């Protein structure tokens, strides 16, 4: 069950994250090729002036894109077939008994990866170079002229515009002056922030599932089910064990397995029906709680309380009627009186009066919820073994078994999220570094000019880096929105039918992406500042001659 759950989780994650990562990586490749062609502008003009055909010059760039894209893809294919499978395998190896890993080469996926790499490296190189070579050789022999300035929408809002100082007005105009770079920065930061937000949100969401369900919601350690039929002597033996010194307390219940077809694949869902004989002390064993309002849910005569994941699968809400089959295959229709917070398994709870009305038979107990004095995993297994040795015991449901299953799923997902977070962090570094470098290189004459005019080093740095900070903040905000969509996908599509991730977002989900991208931006700010301090102003200003 656990292996199937984990493999399904990995399959669902594999449907969305490679696509998202590809678009972010394609942006990095696109900006790199753009920068390379811009830097070779004068050389391209020289070759064109010497009589070389445009397609020959274009081939120079497309060949570079082809070679770099192919080599990068080959390395990626190798690591994807060797390193990543090992990481995923060892994420499960400690908790599951698995055969030795078998590594196979997947031609179809590899060919798709190569084609996509050519699309993101060769195609931009061809289109950018072709557009550049439309200019005359004389124009190509000069550096690319700066983008023309124009009035922006902000200027039409006097209340804001009139309160901005000179440098802030320059920043606002420059942001819209370089629209392509503005969009690339926002999209790049957005992609990295979205991945970081998703990774940390999922980690937070699954991190406390176990503690929440088996610490705050479910207090019993096991359910001991009696045989049906059971002899008098067998019943006495089981009851004697239930009142032994190892048992802290026990509560008689009616325990029954129900089923309902639901979920993505219309699978049969196993539902545990629990009907306590005494509803007053039921809260000592199970805490029924609305996750959103945190209000206690009573067991009333109005209907049954069902677990939240089951309600979501059935698209049901409080007041709706649902039908499920009992162990004999008879359909039972139940009205939902409440939806309780639960993360693992499907549950339905009702009081004896409602049970008798729904099932048309007299209520009787056939099991007990048990709280042990020593609730450790080892002792729970020992006590379960002692119960199973009794002839009157039909079965024992241990929470420790379910806890271990949840831990296995959580640890496996955690490893995948850590890999995702590392990749997102590296992408953020590459994107920010690339775009900042392009920004400085393209505007070196402009920066040299304001430095000659007497601007201090810090003012020169902030003249250009203020734009990066502004666009990074915008990208971060947009990234939170995109990240939330990815996070919702993982919450509602990735988990198996009997598992629910906690959808509540914590402050750390927002603070970590802000912190990671903020630190990267800050460090790059010092790099840019150091670079601009050592700029040769005269060389930069006479480069046109």
UniProtKB/TrEMBL annotation:
It is a multi-pass membrane protein. Pfam families: FtsX (PF02687), MacB_PCD (PF12704). One of its GO terms (molecular function) is ATP binding. One of its GO terms (cellular component) is plasma membrane. It comes from the Bacteria. It is found in: Cell membrane. Residues 16-131, 418-527 form the ABC3 transporter permease C-terminal domain. Residues 183-377 form the MacB-like periplasmic core domain. The chain crosses the membrane at residues 19-37, 61-84, 104-127, 182-202, 413-435, 469-490, 510-528. Keywords: ATP-binding, Cell membrane, Membrane, Nucleotide-binding, Transmembrane, Transmembrane helix. InterPro entries: ABC3_permease_C, MacB_PCD, Membrane_comp_ABC_pdt. This is ABC transporter ATP-binding component. The lineage of its organism: Bacteria, Bacillati, Bacillota, Bacilli, Lactobacillales.
């Amino acid at each position: 069950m656990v292996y199937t759950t984990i493999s399904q989780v990995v399959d669902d994650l594999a449907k969305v994250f490679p696509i998202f990562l590809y678009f972010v990586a394609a942006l990095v490749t696109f900006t790199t090729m753009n920068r390379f062609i811009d830097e070779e502008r004068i050389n391209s003009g020289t070759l064109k002036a010497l009589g070389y055909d445009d397609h020959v010059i274009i081939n120079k760039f497309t060949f570079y894109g082809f070679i770099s894209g192919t080599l990068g893809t080959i390395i990626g294919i190798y690591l994807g077939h060797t390193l990543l499978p090992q990481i995923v395998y060892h994420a499960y190896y400690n908790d599951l008994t698995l055969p030795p890993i078998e590594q196979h080469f997947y031609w179809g996926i590899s060919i798709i990866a190569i084609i996509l790499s050519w699309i993101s490296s060769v195609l931009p190189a061809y289109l950018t170079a072709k557009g550049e070579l439309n200019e005359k050789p004389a124009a190509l022999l000069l550096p690319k002229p700066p983008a023309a300035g124009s009035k922006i929408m902000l200027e039409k809002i006097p209340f804001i515009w009139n309160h901005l100082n000179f440098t802030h007005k320059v920043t606002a105009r420059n942001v819209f002056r370089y629209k392509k770079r503005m969009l690339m920065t926002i999209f790049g930061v957005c992609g990295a922030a979205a991945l970081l937000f998703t990774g940390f949100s999922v980690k937070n969401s699954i991190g406390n599932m176990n503690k929440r369900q088996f610490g705050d919601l479910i207090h019993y350690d096991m359910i001991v089910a009696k045989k049906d039929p059971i002899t008098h002597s067998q019943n006495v033996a089981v009851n004697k064990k239930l009142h032994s010194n190892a048992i802290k307390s026990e509560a008689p219940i009616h325990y029954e397995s129900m089923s309902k077809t639901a979920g993505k694949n219309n699978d049969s869902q196993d539902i545990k029906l629990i009907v306590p004989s005494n509803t007053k002390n039921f809260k000592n064993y199970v805490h029924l709680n609305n996750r959103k309002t945190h209000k206690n849910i009573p067991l009333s005569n109005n209907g049954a309380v069902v677990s939240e994941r089951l309600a979501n699968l059935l698209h049901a809400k409080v007041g709706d009627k649902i039908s499920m089959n009992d162990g004999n295959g008879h359909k039972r229709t139940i009205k939902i009186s409440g939806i309780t917070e639960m993360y693992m398994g499907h549950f339905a709870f009702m009081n004896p009066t409602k049970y008798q009305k729904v099932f048309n038979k007299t209520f009787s107990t056939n099991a007990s919820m048990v709280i042990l004095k020593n609730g450790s995993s080892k002792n729970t297994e020992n006590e379960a073994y002692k119960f199973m040795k009794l002839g009157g015991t039909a079965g024992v449901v241990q929470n420790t078994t379910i806890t271990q299953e949840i831990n296995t799923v959580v640890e496996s997902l955690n490893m995948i999220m850590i890999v995702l977070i590392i990749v997102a962090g590296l992408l953020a570094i590459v994107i920010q570094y690339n775009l900042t470098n392009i920004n400085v290189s393209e505007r070196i004459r402009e920066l040299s000019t304001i430095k000659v005019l007497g601007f201090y080093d810090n003012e020169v740095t902030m003249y250009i880096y203020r734009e990066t900070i502004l666009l990074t903040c915008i990208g971060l905000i947009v990234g939170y929105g995109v990240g939330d969509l990815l996070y919702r996908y993982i919450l509602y599509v990735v988990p198996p039918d009997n598992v629910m991730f906690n959808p509540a977002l914590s402050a750390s989900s927002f603070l970590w992406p802000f912190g990671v991208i903020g630190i990267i931006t800050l460090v790059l700010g010092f790099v840019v500042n150091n670079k601009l301090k050592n700029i040769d102003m005269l060389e930069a200003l006479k480069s046109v001659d």
